[in-house]
Prior knowledge:
Elements: H1 8-29, H2 33-83, H3 99-139, H4 159-197, H5 201-208, H6 225-263, H7 267-270, H8 274-277, H9 295-333, H10 340-353, H11 358-404, H12 415-430, H13 432-450, E1 455-456, E2 459-460, H14 461-500, H15 523-536, H16 540-546, H17 564-569
Antiparallel strand pairs: 1-2
Helix pairs in contact: 2-3, 3-4, 4-6, 6-9, 9-10, 9-11, 11-12, 11-13, 13-14, 14-15
Amino acid sequence: MAATPPSFSPSRTTCASLLRELQMIWDEIGESDNDRDNTLLQLEQECLDIYHRRVEETRTHKADMYQWLADAEAQAANLVSSLGESTVLPRVVLGKGSLKQQIATIRPVLEDLRSKKDERIKEFLKIKSQISQICDEIAGSGQYKSVTDSDINQSDLTSKKLGELKSHLQELQNEKILRQQKVKSHISTICELTEVMSIDFMKTLNEIHPSLDDSLKGTLQSISNDTLARLTGVIHSLKREKQQRLQKMQELAKLLVELWDLMETPTEEQKEFSHVTRLISASTDEVSTRGCLSSEVIEQVEGEVHRLNVVKASKMKDLVFKRQNELEEIYRGVHMDVDSESARQILTSLIESGNVDLSDLLQNMDGQIKQAKEQALSRRDILDRTEKWKFAAEEEKWLDEYERDENRYSAVRGAHKNLKRAEKARILVSKIPSIVENLTARVKAWEMEKGIPFLYEKIPLLHSLDEYIVQRRLREEEKRKYREQKRLHEQAAVEQVALFGSRSATKKPLCQSNNGNTIAGTPTGRRLLTPSGRHGTSGGKERRESGRLNPIIPVNYVALPKDDSVSRGN
């Protein structure tokens, strides 16, 4: 675009004035015309050079402006592309508007795009710095590498790329949170384990990583793979140590209980170690009491076990004989044969010889006691039935004596109790055959199972039962003979009364009974004989019933048929 020629009014007037002043100076100097012409030509040439130079500079400036416009348009296009913006750039049409106007139009757009780029770069730097920091924490390098502009691809600053970085950052932040939670959980587990075993918690954490100490304010806890692996390893190690200590404590606790039982330690003394005995049946996860598995507690329990072992050695002889007493009591309780004197002599010899371990001896005796209890349990049912048989036999004996007493119905104190007892005894005696039969069957079954005879008071019970059966049969035979003799005697007495009643006073010795009692021939005597005379002519049933009225005639004993159902129920 051509520049408007400058106005010569002020500048030309100045030049003319200067030229006249120069002519005057030359006149005074006396310059020649050639010199004056050369000087003027020279001045004119210098002016032309100045004009040419200025024109050239103006052309260069114009070219620079065109170049700037081109660069600005290209830079704006690059910014729009890198930012992913949808900004529409103003397109400048040649010949419409001056270069300065075109520059003024595009400059604000370019500055706005540059400002957006700077803001976007800051966002990228911030996110990339956070990503780099979290990656360093996970890697555990311990050195944070700062992010600079050169680490950012400025050709791709789009919102999409920024969103991808934010998503990646979010994933890393979630990973960091999970790792922090794992670290916190592991620290909590280590704290619980160290508390149970009284191990220095802070020292353990510092050995893993110094940053795990909460007392260090402003220090980020390490969440690196190495730290997590160390935490996991320490937890496994502590759990294994806890398991080993618990097993050792349980073994010591069982020894304590055994020693307490051996020496019959009072409950009050046992309470001192109740926190130890409670661990016998506890699992590893159930043990959480502070210091219950500490080295000090284990040493204390070991010391107590050692002390009790020393005491046990001094009391072992007493314990052995106490076990022997217990064994004898079990045998006596179930009527088993035991040679106490011989057993005690053998035990004394073993202890004094020193050739036997007293602990093994006690264990052996415990086994004998256990076996004796099992035998006693297997004999209990038979013993109960034996006691019932013994009681029934005693009642049978008493009933025989009672029925032989002709004064049993006399009005004396306690007669009604004897009557009631006799009724119950008759019922029980009637069951004796079934009791003996059932007991014999059970004894035979027991002996077949055990392969040894069933001894009762050092005598085979079957022999006692057989002997009792034989004796009972003999007694039954004697009673039968006695009843027959009585019946004949009573019949003879009745016949004598019927034939010689008016001369009974002179025949007095003939009426003397087998028991040495004499029946007088007075009216009182006749009243006593009248019922027997009446019943003497009746059948056997009436004679049995008359036993309740006539004190002279005993009641015939007739064993009732055994009641299988009742006897089996008993």
